[in-house]
Amino acid sequence: MVFIMPEIITIPTEHPDVELRTRSAADDQAYLDALLASRGELVGFSPRMVTRLNTVEDVARDREAWPGSDTTQFGLFHEDIYVAYLSLTTLSPRDAEITYWTHASHRRKGYASLGARALSDYALTTYHTITANVRPLNVASQGVLRKAGFEQRGESPTWLYFKRYRAIDRLSQPNDPRNERAFY
Is residue 4 part of a domain? Predict the structure, then answer.
């Protein structure tokens, strides 16, 4: 199952002035500004993305390359100000993964947690399990995921693995071995 959303989808958050919406051409400049402002912190996580997106045209080409893929990209907006990026990637018919980063000037304000909670709530209407991976030294991101309802379910030397489940799955099938399935 591919989670394709050709139209603009808006997902509300717990804060009335903050919403998620799929990336569109209208967001390209705001996305680029956020990326450039956050480049130093992001290079360790996604050097390819950070180094190849330098102009609005680069961002437009990148956005246009995504339709039909297993990943849907979102912007998190507070009163129409682009504050964070989130994505949802289909891993299997049961599972999806979220990723996120926050504009450098909007960090430590709760936006990542709001976005991760809203996107995972939305995704859990389709998928059974939502995953996210975090570097062990990224304590702030671990807090984001815990605040958004994720549990740490594994680790490796370079990653901590988090999951959030559809509530009914864990309650109705508490001994189902798929609930403890490894990420890799």
Answer: no
Could you give the dihedral angle defined by the CA atoms of residues 17, 18, 21 and 23, in that order, rounded to the nearest 10 degrees?
110
Contacts of 147 (CB under 8 A, 6+ apart): 110, 113, 116, 117
- Domain tally, the chain: 1
Residue range(s) defining the domain that contains residue 71: 10-179
CA distance 70 to 87: 10
Cα separation, 178 vs 114, whole angstroms: 27
| CATH number for the domain that contains residue 72 | 3.40.630.30
C-alpha distance from residue 174 to each of 148, 165, 166, 179 (Å): 21, 11, 12, 8
How far apart are the C-alpha atoms of 124 and 25, rounded to whole Å? Answer: 27
How do residues 89-148 score in pLDDT, each as one tens digit?
Answer: 999 999 999 999 898 889 999 999 999 999 999 999 999 999 999 999 999 999 999 999
